[in-house]
Write a structure and sequence with these properties.
Blueprint: E1 4-9, H1 14-27, E2 31-36, H2 38-41, E3 51-52, H3 55-61, E4 65-68, E5 80-83, E6 104-107, H4 110-123, E7 127-130, H5 137-140, H6 146-153, E8 161-164, H7 175-178, H8 182-189, E9 192-195, H9 203-215, E10 219-221, H10 228-233, E11 236-239, H11 244-250, E12 255-258, E13 269-270, H12 273-286, H13 293-298, H14 306-321, H15 331-341
Parallel strand pairs: 1-2, 1-4, 2-3, 4-5, 5-6, 6-7, 8-9, 8-11, 9-10, 11-12, 12-13
Helix pairs in contact: 1-14
Amino acid sequence: MSQRIVLFCEKPYALSILQPLAQEAERRGYTCLWYLHPPLAAAGVADGIRATDSLADLMAFDPQAILVPGNEVPYYLPGVKVQVFHGFAGEKKGHFRIRDYFDLYLTQGPYFTERFAELSRRHGDFDVQETGWPRLDRLFNGSLDPLAARQQLGLQPNQPVLLYAPTFSPRLTSVPDLLPRLPELAAALEMQVVVKFHPLMDARWVDQCRDLAAGHESVLLASDADVSPCLVTADLLLSDTSSVVYEALLLDKPVVTWKTTAEAPIWPDVSEPEALLPVLQQTLTSGPPEPNTVKERYHPYTDGESSARMLDAVADYIERHGVPKQRQLGFWRRRRVHKTFGPPPC
């Protein structure tokens, strides 16, 4: 494969997903350029990386591949457009929607591969390869130390941790129901509660949680966009319809959800307020579900080498198909790209 790749970040969550890919690419001697969508660049997240918020810079860089955890990428940029996904929640609306922006889909495990392979046969204009998901690499390769993560989060050294990590979607989030109950749960379970919001969470809930944490020593708000340090320190996860549920199960963490929309969940799900505490207590005792079919179906890779497989898959695609100058797109999709990113730079 050629040496120039773009790491395309439209949303804050993209950074932690793409970082392991950047490290593997640099290890191979590739030249990497990060693209930060202007609102993201304005947030000051570019310390220590070679980054731009200019699509004209990307055109001049002339990449062979663009790696994208989001749903859209400008069709007029050169290079193979590669979808690397931003999570595991296949039950969420739109996860399997083909938006026509991508040449190559790199899937996390068989559950996703089978669906996208069928869609590839139907559409006929993109390839699918199963590689695993890059953000999990450091959870499996030992580079993320749980003790260091506890210190980073400011946790007490010997007290167990309940991680509360809800989705941001207004229709699916459990925050209105569960946020006020966190001090009560912390006291009853004798646990510290770490709240990790999705980076797109409504600011009013973040503010309310900050106020809650200020008044209760047992509640802590994690500020880092990456959920991985929270996951490795957690003894129990409380969530809803969020991709983090699957990440926790891949790490053999016990999980309880609140009114999930997942089909036939293999973990305990609660919809009545009075049942929440007993179910949390029982799950702490019983541990993760057995058999844990999430490992087999969603992400069977535990070697921490998903980033390497992704770059190998991109190289294989280029060897077979070459490097496209742009992606062919219909009028309405082009118009959407122009609305989000602007028209092609002159």
